[in-house]
Amino acid sequence: MAAVDPTSESYVALRNALIAMQDDRSAVQSVLSAVSDNGVSWVKTAYCELRRDLVQGRLKQAETMGSLIGLILELQHPGDDELSESKLHREAMGALLEGIGAVLAQDNKTGIASLEQLTEVVYGDDSLRWVAFYWIAMAAADEGDTERAIGAITEAMTLAQGLDQQARGSSLCRFSEIEIRRGEHDSAMEHLTEATSNFEEVGDRRGMAMASLARARLLTKLERGEEAVEAALRAAEADPDWDEPVVFLSRRALASGRVDRAAELVAPLVGLEPHSPEIQRQAQLIDTIRGEQAPLAVVVDFLRLQDQPVSAETVEALEVLWNEHKGFQQLRELLAWSLVKVGREEEAADHFKEMASQKLAPEIQSSVLLGLGCLANRQFKHRQPGARVRATSSAFFQKQDVEEATDEFDGPGSTRQARDVQEALDASFDVDAGDVSAAMDRFSAIQLDAYEEEEITSPGAKVPLPPPLPTKSRSAVEPKAVFTGDLQLFAVPDLLDFLNSSRRTGTLVITSENGIGAVHLKDGYIAGAASPNSTNMGDLLIEEGVITSDQLESAIENQKTKSPDRLLGSILLDLGMVQRVQLRAALEAQVRGALGEMVGWTNGRFAFEPDRNGPENPSEIELHLDTRGVLLDVLRQYDEQNKDG
Asked: How far apart are CA 349 and CA 207, in angstroms?
């Protein structure tokens, strides 16, 4: 049976009902038995929706739909056959989520390897094999492997012929992007025209808008400005809810010197809640011109450089512009991130730290804090997760904050935390600057161990400091791959759920107006978390009555004078002040407290930095918390607190 429109009321109603009851197999079976064909045609339509979610990178929604389809296939064809449709579907979904997640994290080689497992399956569903080829084409093109990209998109176009118009249109759009990179502009234009026709036939308004905007960008590249504007206007008309065409049109207006027209285009969208970060940034660029922080010509140069791939040449051009216009905040932000991408992290850190001390627009502040957090995370990559996330979340603290905290609080925990935060930040940038001896001196004095999770194998065991980071020349430093985004589009719980589903290992850095938060994951499980207001392990032990303030200070003094390279938790255990179960309970409470703060952040940015080489110390035993279980508890508590408030 043919699939129906995935936007039809009948399909959507049944889908929502099945999602709501998918934990109750008997209820799902009962609903299916009431459908004339036992849900066969519904599954075909569900695959259409699943393809769209996967192609657009909406992995959370795709996972939900994929799980539901797998359950229905199992109910329709029960059995444990190795080649059962439900088993093949679930294996394919696992490979897709892992592969697409890796590509989104800019780990293209890992993504291609995972996706190619699916392309080699003989009995796989054509829908999911098409998605795999589609993403391989994108990843290979980004890697500069044009031959593989062309081969993959050709396979995708062949499979799309047996699917639907939306799949054919998406394949053509991807093919045109590869052709544009190869300079085959005429062929790309033809394919975009054909893609638009396919999207129009099925009423896919976002597809129509994407094809028209791709045409607008190609026409701009060909210096056909008026036609580019017409194409962008068609994109905006096709999908009024999509902001990118409006941003494109506003930037084209600036390029032609029409500042008032640029402002007129974005004005209706600036006040919308939630507002689009890109719209807000465009409005700020216009204010930069009107406020004479930078002339129009400089803003146009900035936009041109922003659209170019990051290279030593673009960084040099940005530096020249910034030296001439130091009040241009977005320019300096772009320069700092470009320095990170070319491996000049010490210089990037200097820019981020100075910007963090200034009054910034909210979107720029989130970006700057993200830079500070990501750099701190990288410098602490040899440390255990607890110390790593604490250093990352503390990267925003400035010296004046430490002084205020010391003056305001008399308790040992608050004063010590403020002092340690600044030491952690200073140590991280000592390493970044190549001053390893200074960093090691700082590390030996920091009570970061109070935030670490550890398992002590013997009472007298010493844990050595991490080895110093090797110094590298600029040319030898490889840019770090990160998966970044905006919290308005990807909420914190959804982020963690996705990273858990795709079994990612690395650090999620999250920023908001409140500061920086961090969550470290190993194979999708939470290994540590910290936020601006999360309490450290030592203070939690005091709050629970496990130890006294005097005992904690005694342990800290013992660490300073006798065992500077030992974990504070180890010393507390050795002195008989705590039991292992109490230590672990405090660490879990710290994680829950940090997540409880971060799930309420709705405005800000995030970056997930994957760990490529696994743990530095394979003998360490860490927290290994079930992400979904912890999230459910945290969200339940968050809802209760908001209700009470």
From this structure: 40
Q: Which residues neighbour 143 within 8 Å (Cβ) at sequence distance 6 or greater?
A: 108, 109, 112
Confidence of residue 190 (pLDDT cuts 50, 70, 90): very high
Q: Which residues pair with 605 in a beta bridge?
A: 486, 511
Single-letter code of the amino acid located at 109 = K
Residue of 439 and 394 predicted with greater confidence: 394
Task: Mention every residue, 6+ apart, whose C-beta is less than 8 A from residue 612.
Answer: 107
Round to whole Å and give the CA distance between 170 and 252: 26
pLDDT more than 70, % of the chain: 80
Residue 526 near residue 590, CB atoms below 8 Å: no
Nearest Cα neighbor of 336 from 326, 322, 328, 347 is 347
Query: In whole angstroms, what is the distance from residue 342 CA to residue 108 CA?
Result: 18
List, in order, residues 6 or more apart from 574 with CB less than 8 Å away: 456, 459, 460
Residue among 584, 557, 585, 587 nearest 571 (CA): 557
Burial class (CB in 10 A: 0-12, 13-18, 19+), 172: buried
Sequence-distant contacts of 545-550: CB under 8 A, at least 24 apart: 546/577, 546/578, 546/582, 546/586, 547/572, 547/577, 547/578, 549/411, 549/412, 549/413
Three-class SS state of 517: strand
3-state SS class at 612: coil
Q: Where are the domains of the chain?
A: 380-644
* Cis amide leading into 362 (omega within 30): no
* pLDDT tens-digit readout, 228-237: 999 999 999 9
Contact (CB, 8 A) for 248 and 282: no
* Helices 244-255/225-238 angle, 10° precision: 160
In three-state secondary structure terms, 290 is helix
